[in-house]
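G., the chain you wanted modeled:
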Amino acid sequence: MKGIRARVVNGRFVVDTPAPFPDGTELDFQIADDGDEMDEAEQAALDAALSKAWEEAKAGKAHPLDEVLKRLGKPK
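Predicted structure as tokens:
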């Protein structure tokens, strides 16, 4: 399910689309994070590293998690 977007109008949440929940359903809302602490260059570097890692994994160059943890000296 996709999230539900609402606006605050006069101190009330206003939802533009019908809610897919029955009447009486209680919901907890969280304020969406508008971003993180990375600047554009850091985000671009992270995106590039993740893309490279994904391509390597698809090419069979990934290592099993238990092997990586063993190399790091951590128990499973």
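The first helix runs from residue 40 to 58.

Shout if anything looks off.
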